[in-house]
């Protein structure tokens, strides 16, 4: 199994039991579903919830003018939601923090943000915010301010989404998990009755260089808290989305 997250961002979660894209597109094993993909799993919707005992981090916040929701994580731009941030390279952890949510407190207030990009020059613990997000915790004129922050459950609604990268096919398959309440640990697909773990790359896709076959696929996703979702009947797509059947539970949910 591949290394887990680096645990710089979520170092304490394992023991809790709670817890550049080349083409520019930019403790128990409780299951969120019941394992049969029928969609009766938990819903991560609502206000973001910190996991009990999750580490409180400290660092500095800056802002970058071109923040639009896209970036190294490969997500599409979200002009109607600019509560986003780029995370420092150590905490980016090879894209493992992509799509996670953090609660940031600065001199003027607190804001919940999505991690969508990497800040390569930022020291460990630092975050680079959109200007509108920065304004909610400090004056823009300050430029750089001290912050504390912690990882929270993302306030998503609906099931997780499997996004197939452009160029995906039965012989080279790349999948990105979107709309997830917790950071993603692993993605597996079923082949010949066995689960095969798919390597994760630093532009936030799980890429099977030899492909996953013609489909439909059976997929299994595990979040950093050990929650598991399984889906079957997923078609192999090209630059398109397939919805799962359920969502990971929020911490405390």
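^ structure tokens above, recovered residues below v
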């Amino acid at each position: 199994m591949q290394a887990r997250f680096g645990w710089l961002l979520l170092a304490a979660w394992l023991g809790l039991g709670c817890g550049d894209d080349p083409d520019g597109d930019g403790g128990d094993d409780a299951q969120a579903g019941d394992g049969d993909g029928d969609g009766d799993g938990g819903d991560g919707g609502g206000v973001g919830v910190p996991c009990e005992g999750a580490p409180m981090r400290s660092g500095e916040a800056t802002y970058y003018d071109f923040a639009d929701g896209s970036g190294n994580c490969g997500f599409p731009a979200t002009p109607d939601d600019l509560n986003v941030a780029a995370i420092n390279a150590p905490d980016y952890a090879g894209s493992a923090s992509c799509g996670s949510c953090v609660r940031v407190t600065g001199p003027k207030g607190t804001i919940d943000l999505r991690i969508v990009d990497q800040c390569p020059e930022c020291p460990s613990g630092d975050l680079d915010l959109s200007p509108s997000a920065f304004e909610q915790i400090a004056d823009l004129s300050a430029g750089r301010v001290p912050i504390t922050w912690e990882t929270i459950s993302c306030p998503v609604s609906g099931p997780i989404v499997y996004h197939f990268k452009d160029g995906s096919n039965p012989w080279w398959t790349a999948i990105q998990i979107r709309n997830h309440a917790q950071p993603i640990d692993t993605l597996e697909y079923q082949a010949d009755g066995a689960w095969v773990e798919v390597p994760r790359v630093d532009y936030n896709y799980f890429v099977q260089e030899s492909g996953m076959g013609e489909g439909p696929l059976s997929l299994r996703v595990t979040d950093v808290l050990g929650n598991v979702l399984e889906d079957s009947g997923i078609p192999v797509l090209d630059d398109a989305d397939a919805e799962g059947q359920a969502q990971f539970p929020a911490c405390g949910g």
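Residues 1-9, 11-46 have pLDDT under 50 and may be disordered.
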